[in-house]
From TrEMBL:
Source organism of the structure: Coprococcus comes
Name of the molecule in the record: Uncharacterized protein
Pfam families assigned: Big_7, Glucodextran_B
InterPro entries reported for this sequence: Ig-like_fold
Amino acid sequence: MAVKTAQYIFNGQAYNLTYNSTSGKWEATVTAPSKSSYNQPDHVLGGTVKATDEAGNTTTVDQSHATLGASLKLCVKEKTAPTITITSPSAGAYITNTTPTIEFQVKDTDSGVNAGTIAVTVDGTVVSTVTKTVIDGGYKCTCTSPTLKDGSHTISVKASDNDGNAAAAKTATFTVDTVPPTLQITAPSNGLITNKKTVTVSGKTDDVSSKPVTVTVNGATVTVGTDGTFTKDVTLAEGANTITIVAKDKAGKTTTVTRKVTVDTSAPVIKSVTLTPNPVDCGKTFIIAVEITD
């Protein structure tokens, strides 16, 4: 008897096979699923072939067949690499911690992240211990950086999915700054007594790792030049005044300088003048006594 029909059942769909007289085989073109088979049993998808002859006799073979079963197991691989997101320290961050906690996520919504491929380096040094917590679609990872010096540093994270797709290394460059900015106040001098209601505060600030530095004078932001110099006119009240100057770098470290200035706009009062003796003999001396208050 001759074969009448042949059919391939795969991934819930039936495909009719057509006889190819050249190859002598029954064939069909089948579109693979859009998702990886990695999460299926044995990481493969199975199928079934049915052949029916002219007399109506049917033979069925599936992936459990002792001889042909392995031939029906199809491995489907995705081509999209995992996504990596570094959350801390963020790119461009300025921090004061010399051993910061590094946090990042690796996700792959198809074959899944291969946890064994997750690798972290800081300035090229491998971080050996990485804690990986399962989240939807992948892992949330944390680790502690080796001790860092002040200055710029770069985190690099690599990972692959279970189908072997490697993500391009994700990097984040940040700056460690443990030293507060310098702050020099050139005017006014501390303890200044003046009859002016306005005084000019001037000075210079700098920070090796965290330029530019911001400056406030009594809470008001001051423009700082590229060379670190600044000036600010401050209105004073009669009597004692405290001027507070604060320099703050990008890492949040501050240096504070205060200046005490006293304003006295009241002129002294001459209350009395006494000349003794008066009259005085020619060529003799006399004493002048003046009573003054202020």
